[in-house]
């Protein structure tokens, strides 16, 4: 490990000031066996003053692991020793302790390397986790996961259910499907401190037990040219087979965290430059959002002392930044300015308030979700905090000022491409209440269809003569005025191949996991069906005016094209485009523009989650203080 301090400072002076500690985890040698297979899955944890400050990656099935990871810590005291612990990772169980050592920072010489040995000890250690603060990124790594080739079969039937995990510093991504034709696209942030090594691992999904490791590859991003798309066929180490990727490195307008005294949009000259950057004449970027986090009032007391140590986390899709912690305060003032790049104007800004705990994970205090299209620029507003599900209010209010500048044309074009998926998502769980809720939502959609069917039937039976005549006229106009467009939508029915059942009978836990998977599948299917119907309804209800106007504009353009160009030519052009996509770009990720458009329309559940609760001025602590003083 190496350390460094400002030149000209003695060790005594450095102990009382800021100090930079550089740690490099090299490797382990002859570590203890903790798994039944005679190996271990070791990783290293570093703790300082009772807090976890760094955790290495996991090296699977290796007693002589090589990590080669670096991290840099800023500390203000050398009195606290650095506690180094080695664990064996166990999926779903408590990790096994392998050894530990104390490193006393006062004993280190400045700017030299020191080797530290971790000795084996037999003791019981209680694991603790701590929220790691987000960092600012300097670039974006765009990855298109295409397919796997010649992967090793891991199941008794000679097949596998492969998925891929990506890790770049603290970021992780897991592919969504088990087919080797993944066709998924996602972006990762490239940080200054975490280096540029992309760790790729391939796993075989096994229900009810630990997933099988197939292979891995570590890609050094520094060897790739920037602003170019690289087609890579990566051979897996410790296994056979390849993973096919498309990787693009792009520079990013860096996100920023600043005080209120340094606000980009408050400077008239800088504001004009930003407005020009996102004008109609520049279609490169969608936009920018600036968030001023002022303060919070009346927060929940999470500590036994009746106070809290609150900090605020801001998330926009997969971009995550956070404020500093204000200790022992229920009415904290942060006064920070955060700047994000907007990739999709339909994104939702999530602001969550946590209570920092030294010995365990942070406690949830409240949350609010704000769609960017609902923002009123330059208006400082108080938002009542809600619970984790955003369904009911909780204690406290947070004051924000948000400015959004975006290119309307670019935002409209991005509406008909697949939306960015969040990498960190909670695993779905079986919930009787959620299952009943989704069933009722589907039932309401079906009742709407039944009411429409009843209306059409009543018009056919001439219950209302004038309505029947109007519908007859529309029917004749549609039949005589033009041809039908058959095959406008492609309905793909995935028929699962019937696989032979294993000769071995399934155990009780396997059956239990299978039943749980069935319930989760039914629960998710009901949610998708209900959400689709609600999104169609909300499009016509003008729930999001931007999307409704966009739909009207698209219909007007389609009408104008039909007036100028015969229908058969448009159908021919559409068909040629659809059928030649794979020829023009074999690695393209197919999408449906109509479904991508509807995915931007919120469902009824999301409308309720995004609903802004009104703040009662009389309940504000600052208001009460002013009243008491008067």
From TrEMBL:
Signal peptide as annotated in the record: none
Biological source species: Oreochromis niloticus (Nile tilapia)
Keyword entries, A-Z: Calcium, Membrane, Metal-binding, Repeat, Transmembrane, Transmembrane helix
Origin: domain of life: Eukaryota
Protein name: Multiple C2 and transmembrane domain containing 1
CDD domains linked to this entry: C2B_MCTP_PRT (cd08376), C2C_MCTP_PRT (cd08377)
Membrane topology of the entry: Multi-pass membrane protein
Transmembrane segments: 546-574
One GO CC term on file: synaptic vesicle membrane
